[in-house]
Amino acid sequence: MSKVVFQRQVEDSVPKINDEVAVGEDLDFQRTWWKFERAVWILFALLIMADLAGLFGRGPLADATLISPAMTIHFERIERSGTPSMLHIDFNPSAIQEGKIKLFASESIVNKLGAQRIIPSPETSAIGGGGITYTFPATAVPATVTFALQPDRPGAANFELQVPGASAVQSRVYIVP
Which superkingdom (predicted)? Predict the structure, then answer.
């Protein structure tokens, strides 16, 4: 084996001051970078506060209540796609006729909001008029019906609920990814 001998010494191309590496600085660039970092931190803080407030679902901004003479509806105004939620309806005594409650629900509750089940189960249901009319037994006052929802795609969904003889209650739910 032969030994390799270098004729020239390898020199470092990085300048040194007092035998230490001299790193240049650009204060204008550094100040610009600090401003950028501050803006990103503020954006992150705003996103976290918006999420805690319910802007992306499940929070004070997302919760909604609609009150009509026949019923009170509690639901989430902002829902997440693929996430279960509940739409609760509390019926006033004026909604009960002969021990039964009839409720018209627009087809968007089933199609767009993804109604998975209804609690309690209705005695009967009839399709027509752009939705479904359910009949529930009313054994206690206040009577309550809950729709278990799970929307499957983002978008906006308008819905309507109505007790026969009373004005319809309409609202919109925003579904985020």
Answer: Bacteria
Q: Could you give the 3-state DSSP secondary structure of residue 127?
A: strand
The two three-digit tokens of residue 23, written as one number: 């790193």
Could you write out the DSSP letters of every residue in 1-65? -PPP--SS-----S-EETTEE-----HHHHHHHHHHHHHHHHHHHHHHHHHHHTTTSSSTTTEEE
Pair of tokens at residue 20:
């230490």
What's the CA gap between 17 and 102, in Å, rounded? 88
The continuous run of DSSP H or E covering 79 comes out as strand 78-80
pLDDT per position as a tens digit, 100-159: 999 999 999 988 999 999 998 899 999 988 899 999 988 777 789 999 999 999 999 999
Query: Burial, 89: exposed, middle or buried (Cβ in 10 Å; 0-12, 13-18, 19+)?
Result: buried
| Tokens standing for residue 97 | 């006729």
